Amino acid sequence: MECIYDPCCGGGYLLTVLGFLNHERIKTIMASDISNDAIQLANENLLLLDKNGLKKRIWKINDLL
User: Fold this and answer.
1) DSSP label at 61?
2) What SS3 state is found at 55?
3) How confident is the model at residue 1 (pLDDT cuts 50, 70, 90)?
4) What 8-state DSSP symbol labels residue 24?
5) Closest to 29 measured CA to CA, from 12, 44, 51
6) Which of 60, 61, 29 is nearest to 42 (CA)?
7) CA distance 47 to 57
8) Which of 18, 65, 60 minimizes the C-alpha distance to 3?
9) Alpha-carbon span 36 to 61, nearest angstrom
10) What digits encode the pLDDT tens for the residues 45-65?
11) Alpha helices in 1-65 (DSSP H)
12) Phi and psi dihedrals of 26, rounded to 5?
């Protein structure tokens, strides 16, 4: 199992895609950024890798509709 770390993750797009494509090989994903807003967005995106996080995003989108 691998651990990946992105020190300047921004919105976490790359980490999220890597997590989707390699979920069977990745044990830990770590991210950091100088911007608190970027960290918040990265956290929201990385939550998509979890079934509960995905369900919450679907509920949020349905509420916006």
Assistant:
1) H
2) helix
3) confident
4) T
5) 12
6) 29
7) 9
8) 18
9) 23
10) 999 999 999 999 999 999 999
11) 13-21, 36-46, 51-64
12) -100, 125
CA pair distance 39, 64, nearest whole angstrom? 23
pLDDT recorded at residue 59? 94
Can you tell me which residue has the tokens 């509960």?
Answer: 52
The Cβ of residue 8 has, within 10 Å, a number of other Cβ atoms equal to 10
Tokens 């919450």 correspond to what residue? 56
Residue count of the chain: 65
What is the C-alpha to C-alpha distance for residues 31 and 5, in angstroms, rounded to an integer? 6
Radius of gyration of the chain (CA): 12
The pTM is what? 0.82
pLDDT band of 11, cuts 50, 70, 90: very high
Cα gap 26→64, rounded to integer Å? 32
